[in-house]
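Task card 7
Instruction: Convert sequence to structure tokens.
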Amino acid sequence: LKSGDRVPADARMIYVNKLQVQESMLTGESDPVSKNMLPVDAKLGIGDRKCMVYSATMCTTGEGTAVVCETGDSAEIGRISQLVSSVEKTKTNLLVQLEILGIWIAVFVVIIALGAFFLGMFGPFKDIWENENKTVWEQAFKNAVAIAVAMIPEGLPAVVTITLALGVTAMARQNAIIRQLPCVETLGSLTVICSDKTGTLTKNEMTVVAVRSAKSHFDVTGIGYAPKGDFVDREKVPVRESQLAFIKDMLEVGTLCNNSSLVQTTDVTGGEKWEAAGNPTEAAILVAGKKAGIDTKTLYDNKPLRGSIPFESDHKFMATVNESNGILTMNVKGAADRLIDICKDQVTDDDMKKRAPIDKEYWQQAASELSSRGLRVLALCVTGISKSLDMESLEPAYIYKKEVTLTMVGLVAILDPPREECIPSINEAHTAGIEVKMITGDHAQTALAIAKMLNIVDKTNEHIVYTGPQLDEMTRPELEDAVMKCNVFARSSPENKIQIVQALQARHQVSSMTGDGVNDAPALKAANIGVAMGITGTDVSKEASQMVLADDNFATIIVAVREGRRVWDNLRKILIFNLPVNLAQGLSVFISLAFSGLGGVPLTAIQVLYVNMITSVTMGLMLAAEPAEDTIMERPPRRPNKRLLGKLVLWKCLFVSVQMVAAVIGVFKWAQIWPDGGYSIKKRRGEAFTVLIFMEIAFSFTTRYLKQSAFRKEMLTGNKWAYVSIATVAGLQFLILYVPGLNDTVFEVEGINGWQWLRVLIISVILFLVVELEKALVDPLLFPMVKPLLKKLGLVTPRYEGLRSRYSETSDTEDPEIAKKVNGKSEPKL
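Output:
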């Protein structure tokens, strides 16, 4: 193997010469791994097996020889492929609930239609049809079909699809690309977000965050590769000019001892963007130097390179020899623990000209304190060098010589910093009752430090972190307990990620998993929502996912969750709006067949079809475009298997449809007896048809807010499509009533007069006010009084064990059989 080669198979190293391999596709970590020949415990994860190379990874530097030990499906990349193919896709709750809804509607409609048929055959209209020389069974069959058509919400599938499509469009504008339409609503029920660290929660741009000298500690502001930031002391006070001059001298050591560079480009918006060319850690030191005022081009011109010692994992440092004014200086940069032991003196009083014997205990304590915060600590050192030394034969052993006095200048602490927008997003997730878990291939200490910065851990679990090998040794119950109480998992393998997802699902949690590498694909497919990275993600991970983040940003997931909750709310609003209207149509015709005194049915088949296919769809689209309610991210996640056809929908359906039936039949009968002699059948149908349409309009206003009052300014300003829909439906109704041919021939109606319009408007306003009164009384006042009785009768389903979350006590359950369909698991324990 040599630099630039793609590794053809899993192999064990038998010869290594400065070989480094990029294994990010398997581990998720971007730094190349230095290889050696030292055997390790087989239980360790891929990232710690430095004596092994793996198929499909890329050699970045050096060379080596290795013995092939695994190929094809037996290789790590092949095992990942097998894991992907073995994971079964989960069925979304929306699809399950729509199937259940379809079954219930079909059964109910068949029962009512059969009842209508027998009522027509043997009811009061039998004699009327016989006197009119009409075939009784034919008329009964026609009315039964009309009732069936009236009660089936034909436009509902179209409205549901459009609602989901609108959600997908809104998410795409926020950089969340949905690959499977039904997954939109699943986002709204997420209880756990499992996220990768590098590039998702962090910027994947190494940054110097602290500088330590023998006298002082300085923090560095600004994150990423953009050279914008300042140096401050522990009290966050900007440093003095003398201190900044010393920091500049210190960072010149790291800038000279450097093989990387910074490249300035433009992003998609035309703004300034900085990228690292080379090692990310070295680029971080260059950025810190620029913040201190170093002009790299001028520095390299004034202090040209004369020789170097490349970095190797054996000695863990790099050195360059630079000349200035005829004097050669060796600049050394490397692991603090190695260089502290080699140094003989140190720069003192923050002055590069002053020296003192090295205080090794101080430097070791300083390095340990910085490392305990999850920071990568590098030491910067200098030493003089003789001009007579042959630069071509310069070896690492040179700085170990007795005559060489290596001077400790200072320490730099480097971190891949959290994204600034992730912290408020994680806080918002906690407010919404969603737990965030970090799953990374990085070291445990680093992962825990980042988790604390992001508020992923709290006082109950701030010291809890599990590694992949620890998870491998757990039994299934122990693993389930671990994933419920721990939020940080380090050195994780692809199998560990699947184990975590499945353990969460076994505890009835709806989880998402983010990832960008090939190693993430199995877990992405196993999760309820797999989230792939759009920028750094591989094609394999995108193919296995249900959602792709175009900006690789965790905050985008929270935006998508908010949109998913909005979509679910709007689907329920559409259902609550459609079902009472359909039920009212069917029952109006059904009840009219039972009373011959009405003189006919109030609604004809064409009117029923018009309501189902035109007005219901038009008003449904208005509800589909309804913006999210203010408290949508303050509510806990809904139950993973929450029914679409739940108690609220059934109650609203019964409560509103009874009023609509009473109004339709009432005005139909009223127009028969008043004024004296009544109106014609077509004029009566015109009024009954119009009162149904305008009650729909009134009901749509109150349905825009499921439990909150509609008396708010947002009702007038929140949804512009509400007025478009209402104007369309009202305008079409005027055409139907008053356009000759369309009214009497097609819809069998006549135009109604002023008194009838007055009745229509009064009844519509009454419906709106009654439903608003019901919202104010039933749910907050009456239901809590009835709930204990329902519990005693066994009509309230017990709750699942909740997640270790601030809102777990509010997370309850529904039918275990539905949970089995949704999660594809055995029957859950209650």
